[in-house]
C-alpha cells in the first residue's frame, strides 16, 4: 500500500458543500450515467452564432468564404473556429471552475488518497490527444469522446468516470460545450493540486454526430518505448522537450488494473502537482514480479510504479536530458508544462488572432 502525502491547505479543512443539482439536471445526469452516449446526454454548447470573448467574430463563423479565402477550399473543412458562447464572460467560466473545484475538494479522499485531480487531467489530455497536426483533425474541439469508436477505445478505459464526474456540471451550465468542460476540468486538476496557472480559452463546439471522430490509435501505448512516444507526440506537433514536460503530469493520480491493467501511483504525492515524477524516475527501478503487464517498481520502497513508456524517458539519450532538467528545477518544469499543456488543449482549435486567455483563481485564492 503506497504512502500518500496529503496536501495541507485550508481547502481541506473547510469542505465546501457540493454542487447543487436542479431536478432537471439530476434527470439529465441519470440518463447520462445509464447510457453514456450521445443520444442520452446533450449539454450542447453549439454556439455557432456566439461572439468571441474579446473581438467581433461575426465574419469568421463556420466554414464560409472568409475561411476558404484564408486557408483554401481543401482545408476549410477541418478548420474549427472557437467562439466564446454568446454573452458569456470570464466570471461565468470562473463559476464553472469553482463548481468543478468544489466537487474535486469534496472527493479529495477518493481513489485511495489520489483524489480526482489526475482523473480530470487525464480526461483533458485524452480528449485532446486524438489530434493529428498534418490532417488538422481530432483534438478537444468537438468533445467527440462520447461517440464510438473513441468512447470504446481501450486507451480511454475508465474515462467515463471523469465524464460522469463532470456531467452534473455540464447539466447545470448547459451553455458550456463538452470540449470546454473537459479541458477546463484539466485546468482545475492542475491548479487545485498546487500546479501552475494554466491560461485557458473557451469556444469549442460540440460535435453532433460521429463524422468527426478520428480512428482509434492516436494515443500512446504504455508498453512501448522511445521511438513510439516520439512518433505519437511528433504527430501532435510536440518536440522531445515538450513531450517530456507533458508526461510530468504523471505526478498526479495512479494506474488502475481495471482500467489499463497497470497498478499504482508514480510517487508519494498523487494529489499534488509538482516535479516528483522526474525525481522518482531518476531513482532505481526494477521490473515488478506480478501477474499483470510489464511495469516497474521502485527498489527502495516497492510502493510506486513506472510504465515501460515512463522508463523510456530515462533510457533515451535525448529525453533523459529534459528529465534531469525538470527533476532539478520545478519552476522550469511548471513553465514548460504550462506552455505545452495549453498547446495540447488547443490543438485543432482555431482562435481569432488576439483572443485573450482566462486565468482562473483557485478556491484557496478566493478564500484567503
Ligand atoms: C507516452 C505517453 C503516455 C502514456 C503511455 C500514458 C499512459 C497512462 C496510463 C497507462 C495510465 C493509467 C490509467 C489508469 O489505469 O487509470 C495513465 C494515467 C494518467 N496519465 Fe498518462 N500516459 C502518457 C502521457 C500522459 C500525458 C501527456 C498526460 C497529461 C498531460 C498524462 C496524464 C495522466 C494522468 C494525470 C494519469 C492518472 C489518471 C488517474 O489518476 O485516473 N499522461 N497514463
From TrEMBL:
GO cellular component: mitochondrial intermembrane space; mitochondrial matrix
Catalytically driven reaction(s): 2 Fe(II)-[cytochrome c] + H2O2 + 2 H(+) = 2 Fe(III)-[cytochrome c] + 2 H2O
Compartments it resides in: Mitochondrion intermembrane space; Mitochondrion matrix
CDD domains noted in UniProt: ascorbate_peroxidase (cd00691)
UniProt superkingdom: Eukaryota
Purpose: Destroys radicals which are normally produced within the cells and which are toxic to biological systems.
Protein name per Swiss-Prot or TrEMBL: Peroxidase
Amino acid at each position: 500500500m503506497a504512502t500518500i502525502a496529503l496536501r495541507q491547505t485550508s481547502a481541506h479543512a473547510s469542505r465546501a458543500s457540493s454542487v447543487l443539482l436542479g431536478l432537471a439536471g439530476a434527470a439529465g445526469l441519470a440518463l447520462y450515467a445509464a447510457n453514456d452516449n450521445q443520444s442520452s446526454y446533450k449539454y450542447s454548447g453549439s454556439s455557432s452564432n456566439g461572439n468571441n470573448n474579446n473581438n467581433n467574430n461575426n465574419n469568421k463563423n463556420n466554414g464560409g468564404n472568409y475561411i476558404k479565402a484564408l486557408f483554401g477550399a481543401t482545408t476549410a473543412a477541418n478548420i474549427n473556429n472557437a467562439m466564446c458562447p454568446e454573452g458569456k464572460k470570464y466570471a461565468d467560466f470562473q463559476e464553472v471552475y469553482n463548481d468543478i473545484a468544489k466537487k474535486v475538494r469534496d472527493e479529495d479522499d477518493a481513489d485511495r488518497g489520489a483524489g480526482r485531480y489526475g482523473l480530470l487531467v487525464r480526461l483533458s489530455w485524452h480528449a485532446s490527444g486524438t489530434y493529428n497536426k498534418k490532417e488538422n483533425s481530432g483534438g478537444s474541439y468537438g468533445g467527440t469522446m462520447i461517440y464510438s469508436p473513441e468512447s470504446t477505445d481501450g486507451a480511454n478505459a475508465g474515462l467515463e468516470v471523469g465524464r460522469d464526474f463532470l456531467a452534473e456540471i455540464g447539466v447545470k451550465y448547459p451553455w458550456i460545450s463538452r470540449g470546454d468542460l473537459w479541458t477546463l476540468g484539466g485546468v482545475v486538476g492542475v491548479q487545485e493540486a498546487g500546479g501552475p496557472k494554466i491560461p485557458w480559452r473557451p469556444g469549442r463546439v460540440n460535435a453532433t454526430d460521429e463524422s468527426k471522430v478520428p480512428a482509434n490509435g492516436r494515443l500512446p501505448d504504455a508498453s512501448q518505448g522511445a521511438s513510439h512516444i516520439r512518433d505519437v507526440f511528433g504527430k501532435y506537433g510536440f518536440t522531445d522537450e515538450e513531450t517530456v514536460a507533458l508526461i510530468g503530469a504523471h505526478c498526479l493520480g495512479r494506474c488502475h488494473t481495471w482500467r489499463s491493467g497497470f497498478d499504482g501511483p508514480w510517487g508519494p504525492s498523487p494529489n499534488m502537482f509538482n516535479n516528483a515524477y522526474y525525481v522518482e524516475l531518476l531513482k532505481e527501478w526494477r521490473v515488478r514480479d506480478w501477474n499483470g503487464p510489464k511495469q516497474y517498481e521502485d527498489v527502495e520502497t516497492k510502493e510506486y510504479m513506472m510504465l515501460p513508456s515512463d522508463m523510456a524517458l530515462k533510457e533515451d539519450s535525448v529525453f533523459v536530458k529534459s528529465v534531469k532538467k525538470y527533476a532539478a528545477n520545478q519552476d522550469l518544469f511548471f513553465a514548460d508544462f504550462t506552455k505545452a499543456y495549453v498547446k495540447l488543449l488547443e490543438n485543432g482549435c482555431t482562435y481569432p488572432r488576439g483572443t485573450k486567455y482566462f486565468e482562473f483563481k483557485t478556491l484557496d485564492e478566493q478564500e484567503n
